[in-house]
């Protein structure tokens, strides 16, 4: 009975987070600008940084996964449907490739697949081999220190860094971290997303508010908008993205966020799980008591 109540509680929390995200997306109203460079890499920003950046998605736009499919849903404006930026995000071949892993992790940790896809798009552009300058690895850009805190350890065959390139391991770790952040900040998706970027310690430092860092604030807006792009239509469980065999040249998403250089060094490493100050209303995420089950 206790186990059943636990599962019901987890799914209720996931449902409430979905409702909060839908409401938050509507209030954020962050326009997204972008362009595809000569190498096929996508560049996105919340501001029009120069003439290359074109308005891609208005803050008050409404999209859902039915619109990502060529044969279903309400027909899109042909100009948007044929946009290279729209094809980049909606037809990336790895959306389909990792769909089963995303849905499995979403069920395990009672999260919305659209949230995992939105974070993945923002973090790595669906590139399992992505490594950030700070050392974050893989699809969900997990720091090795975060993985170790959750019980993933290296062995004689593979170090932690190599294990993090495994899509299943990486997605599950990212989903577990998001689940724990959701439990820390219930009904506050903005704080969940901000914590994934800057660490929950930074959010707690600013009295459980989104830290006043341009990078983090822009990151929250971008993930919200990507979530709206990937959110399920009519309550569907899976995204149903069609993928594209002709999109093999698609590469990492580049999120060019104004003010990134202004972010203080102690909190620039996303998902490093720093030891936060003791705040009774939001207890720190505990380290894993048992090894991470790969």
From TrEMBL:
Listed GO biological process terms: peptidoglycan metabolic process
Example GO molecular function: peptidoglycan lytic transglycosylase activity
InterPro entries recorded: Lysozyme-like_dom_sf, Transglyc_AS, Transglycosylase_SLT_dom_1
Chain residue ranges for the region called Disordered: 264-294
Pfam hit, one: SLT
CDD domains reported in the protein's UniProt record: LT_Slt70-like
Domain Transglycosylase SLT: 101-210
Biased composition (Low complexity): 278-294
Database matches in SUPFAM superfamilies: Lysozyme-like (SSF53955)
GO cellular component: membrane
Family the entry assigns: Belongs to the transglycosylase Slt family.
Name the record gives this protein: Transglycosylase SLT domain protein
Provenance organism: Collimonas arenae
